[in-house]
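QA checklist item 7 of 12: single-chain prediction sanity check.
[x] sequence parsed
[x] length recorded as 431
[x] structure emitted
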Amino acid sequence: MNMDGELVDQDILIDQLRILKSINVDGVMVDCWWGIVERHAPQHYNWNGYKELFQIVHSIGLKLQVVMSFHECGGNVGDDVDTPLPQWVTEIGQSNPDIYFTDREGRRNHECLTWGIDKERVLKGRTAVEVYFDFMRSFRVECDEFFENKTISEIEIGLGPCGELRYPSYPASFGWKYPGIGEFQCYDKYLKKNLTKAAELRGHSHWKDGPDNAGSYNSHPHETKFFCDGGDYDDYRGRFFLTWYSQFLIDHGERVLSLANLAFEGTDVAAKLSGIHWWYKTASHAAELTAGFYNPCNRDGYAPIAAMLKKHETALNFTCVELRTLDQHEGFPEALADPEGLVWQVLNAAWDVGIKVASENALPCYDREGYNKILQNAKPPSDPDGKHLSAFTYLRLNPTLMEINNFSEFARFVKRMHGQSSENVQALSEF
């Protein structure tokens, strides 16, 4: 989709979709970019290119998972296109840069809007949540035929950067490199005002600022007084701040998902969480804390998120199911990463409350070893209750995947995903 909302390279796409259909892929996932559809003016939507795409997908006999993408694309790992936020929004941001997430040094992150304006009428008379709802409602009305004929099987709601429910704590555009711990993103005037109010209600108005000893984007936990073992993250003030910070993330999910369920009544809704597996084997879990997941070794940070998703009957889509802890230790032993431990914790938090769990790979995957890890997570062989993923979305449809050796390995994976997991498990490909 180009910036004018026109579908490009149709013939190539049709050929690729037909090939996917021939190996029994169930469907495809596609981002509907806010920055394209509502590009020029508030409530002026252009769905034409997407409707054309959906018609092609329907005619080939594939299903659709559609993502409401309220973030920009470009500047992060795996981004190969640039799609900014709507032009009219960036114009507002020039005169009011506090509509963006902001770090302690005052740097503004343009990936998505701060949750601090969820209820502030700063977007031409509308709040951010109203803007998201109007977009979703317009999509539901304009694309009604694809809901009615069941081509659209699920809507995933973008809740933050990369469409994930998290703070933009590790932006590559600010110089972040793996395995840096990232930084807290709560210094726009709206979030600062909310933190000040929370501190006053607690009776400690001097707690109105975030921690000043939490390092910078590329710090390691032991280099900071906040995240080191026995650090300030676990004292009274640290726990107050992290509780507030993580609750704001959950509250944002609540606000948007409650309206998504209104807009898409009768259609499955999902939300995506990022797999922040680095520093998982430390006490503080620093990289998770800066992203808003309050998950140190003495607290389950994913159970409250799972409970919120359950309240809104929202499925969880989780990443990094292809990663093996051993491989991470070989590449970056200092990161003390544990993707397998993280996947186990998050998937079980969701299964424990009885919501559907879907997943996707975090990085490109073309080898049998990675596919076997996905299959193992799709239906854990040792689980006595037979829990399994409801869907797996492969990231992503590209020329490398279509190379003959890679594609034959992918076809084998799709066959195994259908045959050896559960008949309910779907295999999808994202583009």
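[x] summary fact logged: Confidence is low (pLDDT under 50) at residues 420-425.
[ ] second reviewer sign-off
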